[in-house]
Fold:
Amino acid sequence: MPSVVLSVPGSEAAAEKLRTSLDAEAGTAFVRHFPDGEIYVRIDSPVAGRDVVLVCGLDRPADKILPLLFLAATAKDLGARRVGLVSPYLSFMRQDSRFHPGEGITSTYFAGLVSGAVDWLVTVDPHLHRWPSLDAIYKIPTEVVHAAPAIAGWVRAHVTRPLLIGPDAESEQWVAAVAGLVDAPYLVLEKTRRGDRDVSVTAPDLTRYDGHTPVLVDDIISTGRTMTETLHHLRGRGALEPICVAVHAVFADRAHDELLAAGAARVVTCNTIEHPSNRICVVDAIADGVRARLAA
Ligand code: R5P
Structure:
């Protein structure tokens, strides 16, 4: 029986793109709030004995998590064979340590919630820094889809003589992969973060890269401070107009506009979170990840 794709509210467009790529059946789920704020959920499609693929973008996660958990529980209760979660952006992964006394390590707690609710997880480039892999915290099979090939395709098609720049040590995994695929040089800078918006980044040494276009690559743009601090170093240093590329367009507040104001000629993202800057499509790669899970 074909698998059924269900969307958690807010992820309908992503679910439909994935469903088309998978050639799966579209299911219907309904979620609403009671007048007192509690949540009502209903699945209208037959799911008994079938694989259910729940699609839920987890940026701005607070309002999405309960509907996700309740829909997963409902699908299982209605007899679904397996319930998998496709979350192109996996939230909480940056809280991977107790940075200050008393803090919660929410990446672990969230992994526990998800692992208890669904049978497998597919996501795109989760922020793996202190956790070596999702297996360190998730107790279910996971499939990590890499955006580097799609990003490299975009860079190859749109940028002549790119110089890839990773703004911090964590970004090296993405920047090195893209640089390798486009056969371009890359630099990795050092970042110090003192607070949500208090960030400094070391200046890149551009002396050997005259005539190259700086392409800043990172997994997430949230406040945008990591990228704007990097852009400030490029100003007035003869560098060609820089381009900012990110996997996940989280963009808190006015981050996108602030990047343009700080000198980015373009800001380009993958479509793991719907945003006007989406130019790089990773839907087929996600579908491959889902197929791998369904076949397991
Ligand atoms: C953190 O290490 C990530 O790789 C990004 O560099 C970070 O999340 C970007 O955050 P922001 O845009 O708030 O500086």
Notes: The CA atoms of residues 156 and 196 lie 33 Å apart. Residues 94, 127, 168, 170-171, 199, 218-226 surround ribose-5-phosphate (CB under 6 Å).
